[in-house]
Model the fold of this input.
Amino acid sequence: MRELIAKCCAVAVLCSLGMAQVDAGMLWVSDGNGKLATIDTQTWQVDVKGTMPKVMTDIAMDDDGKLWGTDRENMYRIWQNTAKITDITSGTKDFGNALGVVDGEMISLRPDYMMGINTSTGNISRTLRTDRLTSGDLEQFNGKTYMVSYYTKNNDYTNVLAELDVNTGRVTDIGSFGRKNVYGLAEADGKLYAASENVIYEVNTNNGHLTKLRKISQMEQIWGMTSVPETPVIPEPASAALIGLGIVALLGRRRG
Done:
């Protein structure tokens, strides 16, 4: 009887794992009015969580699913369900205008500098010189760290996609976005997304070209964008069922 129960439990657990859904396409965005929302990139459904009491220049979600934000001067913990914020600032009053998590470390950018942030204490843990201007976001994608930079010429400017080496501070240009006001950058469902005004684009990381995907009418100009941490790939139902059958067969052999 115990062996029969073990067989049934093994198959049930594995099949249920196979039918689980992976939340691989969820973006978090904040706009110039402090509004906080999620965007499902599979359905483009928008869920507005509320309005933060401070306007964030950027937001970032860490590997534990905690949401953080900066308004250039201070660093905040953002409570996702209510849009309430808690100031964690300690020491410095210059956290820059861009946030991103790279290999588990919270990174902030301000003109010419990159900073590591200890979110437990609110302190700057390290500083590197980049000698580059930042337009407001950075994101780790396919093993590389990308940032939005810009150049000013003849009283005008252009946004460019660049690669950042977080160990040395070196910045390498990839290409122009072909438009201004690109403030958001985030990875979801295996793609790199950018936000300009209240429109979401897909980014070509080979040349910086943007492909327009969707206008988000519920938001004003998007300033901050981040994504839910990636979850492990879960076998599809058919695969899980095959694994379960294999375990049952193995249990049967052991019984004999």
